[in-house]
Structures are given as structure tokens and as C-alpha cells.
Amino acid sequence: MRIVVCTLGTSGDHNPYMAVAIELARHGHDVECVVDPTYAGSAAKLPLRAHAAGKEFPNDYILEHPELLHPRNAFYAITRQLLLPTAELQFRDIERLHAARKIDAVVAHHIAFGAIWWAESRGVPLTIGWLAPISLLNPDGLGSMLPGFARRTPLPLARVLRRFVIPALIRRQLDAPMNATRAALGLAPQRDAMVRLPGTGHGHVALWDEAFRAPAAGDPPGLVTCGFPLLAREGGEPPLPPEVAAFLDTKPAPIVCALGTTGGPIPLPIADLLAEACELAGRPALLIGDRAPVAARSSRWVAFAPHGHAFERAPLVVHHGGIGTLAAVLRAGKPSLVLPLANDQFDNAVRLRGLGAAAVLDPRKAKPAAMAGAIRKLLDDRATGEAAARLGERVRTSNGARRAADAIA
After folding, report:
1. What are the backbone dihedrals phi and psi of residue 64, each rounded to the nearest 5 degrees, phi first?
2. CB 200: neighbour CB atoms within 10 A?
3. Are strands 49-52 and 203-206 parallel, antiparallel or unpaired?
4. What's the rounded Cα separation, in Å, for the pair 388 and 185?
5. Is there a contact between 40 and 34 (Cβ–Cβ < 8 Å)?
6. Which of 62, 94, 354, 361 has the greatest number of C-beta atoms within 10 Å?
7. In whole angstroms, what is the distance from residue 148 CA to residue 71 CA?
8. Contacts of 85 (CB under 8 A, 6+ apart)
9. What 3-state DSSP class applies to 235?
10. How far apart are CA 310 and CA 214, in angstroms?
11. CA distances (Å), 273 to each of 176, 199, 297, in order?
12. 65-92: per-residue pLDDT in tens?
């Protein structure tokens, strides 16, 4: 069977689908990946056929558009500015692939609208992959249904938000631009063009572990919770640079801070806050992110280091709570300090804290002294370390990519 796997977004969006694609190929399928142009080079190094489709944006685009990391409104801006321009190009490129050779099935990230709409319009079997629990828009009372707030939303309130408030907000923000893009592709308009997706009769796979978020009433029909598909398991992660490995071997062991993209409405670059906080806590830090601190102090900054290898050497990981980074932290079995900025990060942070494996601070308000206090407390808290280690053992022994491939085909 010829299967096209489609994704877009950051590395945290891209990598899980590449892991699933590799496993589908092992199952004997003819697999081709349609990927964001940013990751075409890395995809080409994998044992896959990859095709770049979509609009390529400058590396500093998000840094120059702080609305894309607004704690409450980021997803609307991302959809209008990044996802929909890409959707039209993705749709047309998949159509060209199909014209050249018949596509039998599509696997699409839930934000890969071009791939989803193409499969629906052509009657091709479709499986939608859901990367983070909040994307299902189905409350279980254990996460946050309020963007911008890293607090658990009680189930009665969460149900009201899901039934009335969230659909109205998404409809007002996104139905018009989504239907304008559909019109350009010759497709009929849809009401609730985004909110409808979890209720469709397509295949649905949840790409996280049940320990992180268990199945709940109201989930998409037939949803299979697979576990985290980890590209690192497939050898898709390069080794640590020698100078980074040497730094992580110093004593006391450095804190690893995986900062991701750190624009948006925060008072200071997070790298500066954490460099000072880790020094106050008596630890150096490896700062991985898009912006170097003005003063690194006893810490070291790098633009990139493979998360899996770095996290394995850390006593504690500080991160934003994006699902890809969170999966790597869970696999490493390390406790976390989570500093959520936007999108799914708030819900992810609340869930990880609820599992006893993390503390959470608001990076828009927290001072270095408060961050240092949280770091010291986490380092000294045996219960948090043990909870993280138990989760790590579970994630390492599961194989989300294989289970997803079994569910898809």
C-alpha cells in the first residue's frame, strides 16, 4: 500500500511522524513523507523518501512576530500566518504526487490541513495523528482548558468551555480564513472547520502514552492511544558535539535548559533568566535555544544539541513543555521545571505536574530567585525524581511508532 505521511510545524511536530513513517515502511508499505521545507534536509538523512511541500519561512520569522507566541492567541495567529498558506501548497503538491502514482492512504498531523482536505475531497482513507492531548479539545479534568493558564481546569468548568466557549472562539477566529483557503482550492465551505475534526469518522491515533493522558469519554471514535513515537529510538538523533559532552561531564552536573523558540511577550529572554537562576542555585546550565544570553555566567549556550542525549546526562531539565521536548524528557526519566509560553504547553505542563514529575512557573512573571528556588527544590525532592524515573522506564519500554503503524495499516 502506498501511504503518504504529512506533517508540518517545528521539530517537535516533524520528528514523531518520521518515526511513524519509518515503522510503516518496516511493515512493508511504500511510504513517502510530505514535510515542511525546513526539515527536508534532515528527513533526507532517514531511510525514507521525503518530499518538501509548503511555504518556507525565514528562521527568525517567529522572533519577529511575537503574536505567534502569545499565551492565549498564538494558535489563531499561527493558523492564519503559517498553516493556511502552507495548506494550499501542500494540497496541490499531494495532488501532483497522486496524479503521478495513486496514493492509497494518508496519515496527517491534525494541523496539516492541506493533506486532510485533500484526502477528504478525494475519498482517500485518512488517519489523523494527534500529538498533544489539548488538541482533542476533550476535557478529562486533569489538564488545562484555558490557554495561558497552567492550572488544572475542574471538569464541570472544562465541559462548559468545550461545549460553548471554545467552539465559538475558534469559529470566530478561524472559520473565515480556513474557508477562504478551501475556496481557493475549489472546496466547499465548512462550519467549525477545525472543531469538527475530532468527531470525524477517519482513523485517529493519539501519539502520547496513556500514563500521560488516558482515553476518555468523548474522544474521537476509534481513537488508539499509541505512546510517544520517538525518532531517537530509530537512530535519528546525532551524537552530542564533543565540547557539549565535555561540559555536561563537569561537576556539579549542569542543568539542561531546552528553551525552544523564546519570543513572545516575556520581559527578558529566558536564557538570561535561567543563566542567573542556575547560578543562584549553585549549578551551571547548558542553555539550548534560539537566543544566546547577554551574560552566560557559569552556563554555556548552544543553538542546538540533541535533546535525547543531553537530557540523559542532566539531573534536571528546564523546558517550555512542548510535546516533543516533553516526550524526550519523559524518555530520559528526568524531573522538570516547565516554563510554558503558548499553545499546548500549558496543558502539557499541568499534566506533567499532576504526575508528580515537574514543577511549573510562569516565565512572564517568575524572577531568577524564584526559578533558583524551584530548581533547588526539585533537585532535593526524592519523590519527584522517583516519579520521573518511573515514567521514563515506561516510555522507554513502549514503542509508540510501532503501535501507531499497527493502528494505521
Report:
1. -90, 0
2. 14
3. unpaired
4. 47
5. no
6. 94
7. 5
8. 54, 55
9. coil
10. 28
11. 40, 42, 11
12. 888 888 999 999 999 999 999 999 999 9
| Residue spans of alpha helices (H) in 161-306 | 166-184, 242-248, 270-280
Q: At what angle do helices 84-100 and 166-184 cross, to 10 degrees?
A: 50
Cβ atoms of 393 and 295 closer than 8 Å = no
CA atoms within 13 A on the CB side of 281: 29
For 294-351, what is each residue's pLDDT tens digit? 888 999 999 999 999 999 999 999 999 999 999 999 999 999 999 999 999 999 999 9
The residue count of the chain comes to: 409
Given the DSSP bridges, would you call strands 126-130 and 255-260 parallel, antiparallel or unpaired? unpaired
- Cα distances from 202 to residues 106, 133, 171, 206, 324, in angstroms, run 10, 18, 22, 13, 24
CB atoms inside a 10 Å sphere around CB 327:
30
Smallest Cα–Cα separation from 400: which of 231, 192, 263, 283? 231
pTM above 0.90, yes or no: yes
Beta-carbon-side half-sphere exposure of residue 354 (alpha carbons within 13 Å): 18
Please tell me the predicted confidence (pLDDT) of residue 262: 64
Mean pLDDT of 184-212: 96
Q: What pLDDT score does 266 carry?
A: 60
Does residue 59 register a pLDDT over 80?
Answer: no
C-alpha dihedral (375, 380, 386, 389), degrees to nearest 10: 50
Amino acid at 279: E
First to last CA, the chain: 9
